[in-house]
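Progress against Task 2.4 (sequence-to-structure conversion) is shown through the following example record, which the project officer requested during the mid-term review.
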Amino acid sequence: MNHIIGALAPTPAPSVKTLTVDEDSAGQRLDNFLMRHLKGVPKTHVYRIIRSGEVRVNKGRASAEQRVEAGDLVRLPPVRVSAQVQAKVDAPAPAREFPVLMEDEALMAIDKPAGVAVHGGSGVSFGVIEQLRRARPALANLELVHRLDRETSGVLLVAKKRSALKNLQDQFRDRETGKTYLALVLGLWPSNKKVIDSPLMKYTIPNGVGEGERRVKVVGKDDPNGMRSITLVRVARTVGPYTLLEVTIKTGRTHQIRVHLASQGHPIAGDDKYGDFEHNKLLQKMGLKRMFLHAWQLKFQHPQSHRPVSLQAPLPPELKNFVDGIQPPIIQPHLDV
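Structure tokens generated for the chain above:
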């Protein structure tokens, strides 16, 4: 047989696989179970092979909503992905650890730096969760409990067990958690303005700069596309011509804090989507190179012990230094008793 020198080895044809559901995956929806095991396969294709009956659970047809149980045998049909997608799957994210605020057998809480996405997608090859999985290969079930914007720093929860993930996500969905952010806004916030209850709606930028990008805006209370959104605001301190706010969200809408604060005429310093772009240029010259939004405090019930947990991530140095450079904190004199 003649061999062509330098020819690429043929890609092995995909084959049928049978997976056994482990204890930690018990109770998971079939579609979510498959997406974890079919990396790089589009969601539309996953749903198609379920509907067509090519996916079998214990040799029987199953629906996307069906819950798998420990010991179930799940048949996966041969699935091809494009070379480009496969290359991304085969190129693992670099291992990276992040500052840990708390960790036990059920979960870990990290202090996410600004500029790092929480997961890959939308032009980002990898994020916090992919890097953590690479750094902690022994933890097979690391999953994000919630999300933070790429430019937002602070407390981020990661579940180590599926049971912990479900419990914590239920708490977030049922608004049983307390999420408080620190935000520096332009101007002097009126101290009597403590609640913003304005519906938000997602939309896509039409023609022009940013075409196709997703944005969020405040809409009227009678708008059928508006989602009720509630933000609580407390003035922490004034910082020269700016105000440092403690912002607690009672609903978790996309870009909620950024849009709500901007809608009141006080955009977040350094916000490149909803902020004051001309003022942001000035802020950059003053040393603020990022959006001043930090997930400062998170309160929740531990998924196993059910005891209250309260975590805090201090302001990162670049934000604290910026504030102190404008208006240093008042140092209380030490009094000998």
